[in-house]
Structures are given as C-alpha cells and as structure tokens.
Design goal:
The chain is elongated, with a radius of gyration of 16 Å. The chain is mainly α. It folds into two domains: 76 residues, no CATH class; 39 residues, no CATH class. Helix content is 55%, strand content 11%. It has six helices and five strands; from the N terminus they run βααβααβααββ. The strands form two sheets. The protein has a three-stranded parallel β-sheet. Strands 4-5 form a two-stranded parallel ribbon.
Length: 132
C-alpha cells in the first residue's frame, strides 16, 4: 500500500499544475498502488489548502472530500469518523479539523471540548471557554 502526502492530493484534486497533476493522477490510478492511503492529517491539510490557499468554496471542498471517501481508489484512515466529522462540519458550518477534534475527544471519553472558536461551538460536543 502507498500513502499520499497532501501535495499529491492537492494536485490530484485541483489539476492545477501541468507537470505534477498528471503525475499525481497516474500515481493514484495505477492499479499497483491502489488503494492509496490517506491519513487524517493529510485530509485536514487538504481542506486547509483548498479553502485557505486556493480559496475554493467550502461546499466544493467538502464535495471533493466526499468523492475521496466514496472512491475505491483510497483507503481513508478513520473513515467512519471522518464521514461523521464531514457531516458535522457541513451542518455546523465549521472547519473539518474542529469536527474531527470534537469527535476524537468524545471517543477518548471527554465530556466536551472547550474552544474559543464561535463556529466550532455549533458542534454538539464543543463548548465555549467560560471564565470562572
């Protein structure tokens, strides 16, 4: 099995580089390399690069993530958790990273995750930091 770094995923998804984009497509679609493993960190970085660096609309970024999750070409680390986080992030209109943090912490036994991020506070298991 072969893992893909974020830059390979960015080139595969955006097709924005005349040299690296075809190379990433060839690497990912070559049957000897399938399925390509995508770790959670690379997926979070991909979302960040597409939204902040490439200025893609969030809905398009989440759709691209959904396509990766539904493709047999990829094995996604923590796939079920990522699917849930993607849904939570879309519903709360917050970052995928925040939704993943909330779910990982919940799974680890945390009652909630404290945050200053107003958007993340819309997630079920996030709570605002309150002064005492």
């Amino acid at each position: 099995m072969l893992g893909a770094d974020t830059n390979v995923l960015v080139r595969f998804v955006t097709r924005d580089d005349p040299v690296q984009s075809p190379q990433s497509r060839d690497l990912i679609t070559h049957s000897a390399n399938q399925p390509i493993r995508i770790c959670v960190v690379a997926l979070v970085e991909l979302v960040w690069v597409l939204t902040k660096g490439k200025h893609w609309p969030v809905d398009e970024v989440f759709a691209a993530c959904g396509a990766l999750l539904n493709s047999s070409d990829f094995e996604i680390e923590e796939r079920e958790l990522v699917i849930r986080a993607l849904e939570d992030a879309q519903n709360a209109r917050c970052d995928l990273a925040d939704a993943l943090i909330a779910l990982f912490n919940r799974r680890a036994g945390c009652e909630a995750t404290a945050t200053f991020d107003v958007d993340a506070q819309r997630l079920e298991h996030m709570t605002p930091v309150v002064s005492r």
